[in-house]
Design a protein that fits this description.
By secondary structure, the chain is of the alpha+beta class. The protein contains ten helices and eleven strands.
């Protein structure tokens, strides 16, 4: 590498070289093919939203939203994830719910976090959601579509870790965060009562129903395609019940290549009536890193 002649990019933002760009494009195309086969249609929303559309939806993560004021004094923000913009879109297009609406979206997201391995401030997500039904069939369909997509791009051992937020309903937010970090910090550094709690946690009625649909309708198998993970909590505040993360080699301690869950209250914040939804997002950067 010679001396750098031109300006540098800001920290956490980078150029994607032709070989990697080509690999990413191929991955996105395959994912889109699988999702269209499952009945999801493409949608695009803007990169910039009004700041107040995004704030108050993500919990403590909110501090990572890029916010700025334009020349007219309007408070704007860069898209943080595709889910809140989808909620805004649905609230303005309720006629699309016939009775459900399933869409996928590929786009850049922006988060002002500390860049580290596999984490950038600008990154690409491939997101897909079904809006308008709280039936466990929809949760199962999202999980099945994610597994079919990841098999298609060449990850035969990937598995979906699945849990239900219901399992944490009696715990403090601090305890939930500790449980979510068990694999990160190690069992030796986790309080015994939290480890006991996890050991005694079993799938909820909701999860048993979803697992049964995955097995009977989609011919997927527990501990080959998906598994119950009582330590899984996921950071974002808007999830209401089912939550899941995709592990590239099927191990709970691995860095996830995507995640999602059910969020039955978020769209109602914009629509003024309850509209259930469930979805999943692939992290394209992490996904291409683990592909053969």
């Amino acid at each position: 590498m010679g001396m750098q002649k031109g300006p540098v990019t800001p920290k956490g933002f980078r150029d994607i070289m032709p070989d990697l760009a080509k690999k990413r494009r191929g991955t996105i195309n395959k994912l889109a093919d699988v999702l269209e086969g499952y009945g999801f249609v493409p949608l695009e929303t803007p990169t910039i939203e009004f700041a107040e559309t995004l704030t108050g939806k993500y919990g403590e993560e909110e501090k990572l939203i890029y916010q700025f004021t334009d020349r007219g004094g309007r408070k704007l923000a860069l898209r943080y994830d595709p889910t809140v913009p989808l909620a805004r879109f649905i609230a303005n297009n309720l006629s699309l719910l016939t009775p459900t609406f399933s869409r996928y979206q590929v786009g850049q997201q922006f988060r002002g976090e500390n860049p580290q391995k596999g984490r950038f401030r600008e990154f690409t997500q491939f997101d897909f959601d079904t809006v308008g039904s709280d039936a466990p069939e929809e949760d199962a369909k999202i999980i099945a579509a994610a597994i079919a997509a990841v098999r298609k791009i060449g990850l035969p051992n990937a598995q979906m870790a699945v849990n239900d937020r219901e399992n944490f309903k009696d715990l403090s937010i601090e305890d939930i965060r500790q449980i979510d970090k068990i694999y990160k910090v190690g069992k030796a550094k986790t309080r015994k009562e939290l480890l006991d709690f996890v050991d005694n946690t079993t799938p909820t009625k909701n999860l048993k129903e979803i697992f049964s649909i995955l097995e009977n309708k989609y011919a997927l198998a527990e501990s080959k395609d998906f598994f119950f993970d009582p330590t899984l909590a996921r950071g974002l505040d808007y999830y209401t019940s089912t939550i899941f993360e995709l592990k590239p080699g099927g191990l709970p301690e691995e860095q996830s290549i995507g995640g999602g869950g059910r969020y039955d209250n978020l769209i109602g914040m914009f629509a003024g009536r309850e509209i259930p939804a469930v979805g999943f997002s692939f992290g394209i950067d992490r996904l291409t890193e683990v592909l053969p």
